[in-house]
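Final report, Chapter 2: Outcomes

The project's central promise was a pipeline that accepts a single protein chain and returns its three-dimensional structure in a standardized token representation, suitable for archiving and comparison. That pipeline is now operational. To close this chapter, we reproduce one record exactly as it appears in the project archive, with the input sequence first and the structure output second.
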Amino acid sequence: MKNATRFLVILLILCGFTIRAKADSTASTFTVNGTYGPDTTSEPLSQAGQDFTISFTIANQPASLDWSSMIGDDFYVYPLNVTYRMGGVETILTNSLVSFYNVAASSQAGGFFVAYCATDVTCFSGLEYQWTFSGPQQYTGSEDNPTMLPSGFGFSNQNFTTYSDTYTAFNSSISGGVTTVATPEASSLAMLLVGAVFAIFLMRKTQSSV
């Protein structure tokens, strides 16, 4: 009876630590897998028919980053480092901009948008890439103080645009699926499992010493 009580007390303490760890995990990672359409222009980061992966991590309270918002429509975060993979080559897209949209917005129905200026960080000249991923709204609350609410979704025939300069755009499409990974849940589950095993170990050690 005493051993069972000790086990429950230890497990409750570990659950408390797990909840705290979950609260302290303040970022979510988004990973997108897609395929460029047959009409995609050939550029260093885009090729017709090629599979690609985009991933980035964003604070669950993104207002703490450099950002701007349009109430009822969207907010964007800048700058972010985005990890990009295509054809076995990984590239870090520094100073990328990521926008998140209200599902009822007229400019884009939910989901998010990624933009990267390859040759000019101001996007006033040179090559620019723009990926669109319309889908479920990825945040809750007002755009001026949002909280991320990641939700995975599939997509097809989304817009992909490259600009060779400020005015010349080449439009094509992408298809595939997007997966959202919320890091707090995964780490908390692992910690709870380790904690339970540790509690059992302590209980058995106590029994052997009696």
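Archive annotation: The chain has a mean pLDDT of 79.
This record, like all others produced under the grant, will remain available to the consortium after the project formally closes.
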